[in-house]
Amino acid sequence: QRLRERLNKGDSILTRDITELLPSSGKPDEGTLEELETRLLMADVGVDATRKIMDGLYERLDRKALADGAQLMAGLEAEIESLLGPVEVPLVPEHSGEGPFVILVVGVNGAGKTTTIGKLARRFRDEGRSVMLAAGDTFRAAAVEQLQAWGERNEVPVIAHATGADSAAVAHDAVQSALARGTDVLMIDTAGRLHTQAGLMDELRKVKRVIQKAMPSAPHETLLVLDGSTGQNAIAQAREFNSAVDLSGLVVTKLDGSARGGVILAVARELGVPVRFIGIGEGAEDLDVFRAKDFTRALVE
Ligand code: GDP
C-alpha cells in the first residue's frame, strides 16, 4: 500500500487511462498494443524489456486472450511479473564460514549509497545483528561525516581515515576490525566520483582485491546503488559497474516522487542481477525488500 502510494505519486504512466488506448469496440487490437509500447518506452522500461513484454502481449492477442481492457491489464501485469520474478532474490547477510558478512557498496555520487547504508544498518541491527560501517569514500569529506552521523544515530561503529586517505586501506582495516570484534555485517562505502571515471573503476577493483586479500570469501555481496530517477542513464551505469566489479545485487533508490519505476524492468532484463531493496524515501524506514509481485501491482494499478 505504502509502495503503491509513493510509486504512483509521480505518474502511473503505464496504465493511466488505459481505456483511452482501446478502440471504440473496447477490444484491444494492434493499435492499442502499439500505443502501450510507446508508454512502456516513455516509462523507462527500456527497449529490450519492452520488446519482451510486447512479444508476450502479441502472443496473447493472437490467442484471442485479450478480449477487453481488463484482460489487457491482467496480461500486462503477468508479463511484467514474469520479467521481475527472477530478480527477486532477497539478501540474507549470512554465509557459511567464519567472520563478517561483507557488503561492498558502489554507485555514483548522489545515487543514495550513504543513505542506503544507513537504512540497512538500522534494518540489520533491528534483526539483532551487529553492524560495522567503513567510510571508504575518502575523496569527499562530507561523505565520511554523513556516514559517521548514520553510525551515531544507529549506534554502530564507523571505521574512517582522514580525507584523501587510501580507500583500500580503510577497507582493509575495517575487515580486520570486524574479524577481530566478531561483527556480523560489515558495509563498506566507496567513492562515487574521482578525477576520472576510469580512475574510479580502477579504485573499486583495487578495493575489492584488498578486501579479498584480508578475507578470502569476501566481499559476500557487491551492491550497486542506482538512482531510479535517472532513467536510461541508470542502465548505462549498471553495465559499467557490473563489468568492473561483478555485481551481485542492486538497490534502486528514489522510486518515490517523480521516478518512473520502469527502470527496474530495464535493469532486470539487461543485467539479471538480483534487485535486493528499493528506496522509497529519505527516512531510515524507507527501504523495502524488493518483491516482484508487490512492485508490479504498484506499477500497474
Ligand atoms: P551518495 O552520494 O550515493 O552517498 O548519496 P546520498 O546517500 O548522499 O544521497 C543523495 C541524496 O538522495 C540525499 O539527499 C538522500 O536523502 C537522497 N535519497 C537517497 N535515497 C533516497 C530515496 O529512496 N528517496 C528519496 N526521495 N531520496 C533519497
From TrEMBL:
User: Residue ranges of the SRP54-type proteins GTP-binding domain?
Assistant: 274-287
Major place of residence: membrane
Q: Tell me the Pfam families matching this sequence.
A: SRP54, SRP54_N
Q: Which CDD domains match?
A: FtsY
- This protein's UniProt keywords: Cell membrane, Cytoplasm, GTP-binding, Hydrolase, Membrane, Nucleotide-binding, Receptor
> What EC designation does it have?
3.6.5.4
Quote the SUPFAM superfamilies the UniProt record gives.
Domain of the SRP/SRP receptor G-proteins, P-loop containing nucleoside triphosphate hydrolases
Q: How does it sit in the membrane?
A: Peripheral membrane protein
Positions bound to GTP: 107-114, 189-193, 253-256
Subcellular localization(s) per the UniProt record: Cell membrane; Cytoplasm
Reaction(s) catalysed by this chain's protein: GTP + H2O = GDP + phosphate + H(+)
- What does the record give as the function of this protein? Involved in targeting and insertion of nascent membrane proteins into the cytoplasmic membrane. Acts as a receptor for the complex formed by the signal recognition particle (SRP) and the ribosome-nascent chain (RNC). Interaction with SRP-RNC leads to the transfer of the RNC complex to the Sec translocase for insertion into the membrane, the hydrolysis of GTP by both Ffh and FtsY, and the dissociation of the SRP-FtsY complex into the individual components.
Write out the similarity annotation: Belongs to the GTP-binding SRP family. FtsY subfamily.
User: What is annotated about its quaternary structure and interactions?
Assistant: Part of the signal recognition particle protein translocation system, which is composed of SRP and FtsY. SRP is a ribonucleoprotein composed of Ffh and a 4.5S RNA molecule.
According to UniProt, the name of this protein is: Signal recognition particle receptor FtsY
Name of the gene: ftsY
